[in-house]
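Entry for the shared binder. Reason: the reviewer on the internal report wants the predicted structure included alongside the sequence.
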Amino acid sequence: MTAFDRRDLGLLLLRLGAGGVLAAHGTQKLFGWFGGHGIEGTGAFMESVGYTPGKASATAAGLAETGGGALLALGLATPAAGAAAAGAMGGATAIHAPNGFFNAEGGYEYAATLGLAAAGLAVTGPGRISLDHAFGHVFDRGWMVPAALAGTAAVTAVVVGMRNQRVRKEKEGEQEALFEE
């Protein structure tokens, strides 16, 4: 079958939407575009929430979001692109988790949704309206999906675990007020 079907069009829309948002979000970190703070500002923020060193963390997150998002939008190296973006969103979810689920309260809703969309695309594949399809799926083999997702999950677990350990250690010396003023 050579005609594109609903699935191909749906995957294209999902890739363009989620990939475009992720890429734009990453350029905020890397270049300060779209109201972002660039590497310096994002690095300072990353340090403040326990991701150290801050500039390296900002660079890694920015590259995963920008590169993963752009590749998802293009439908190129979809397993690796989706896994990288999902890993970055896993790190963002850890920051927002103490605020609950909903984004309006500073929760992890937005980061989790982008991460799940990226992971879903890594698993499902890009569809026929993609560079992966045009290149004969050279960068989109079946074995790449579990390898990319497992590798990214392991790295994300280590990075988030180290961050959570730092945050807990910083809070050890703090004492909550006994009485409200």
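Summary line for the report: The radius of gyration is 18 Å.
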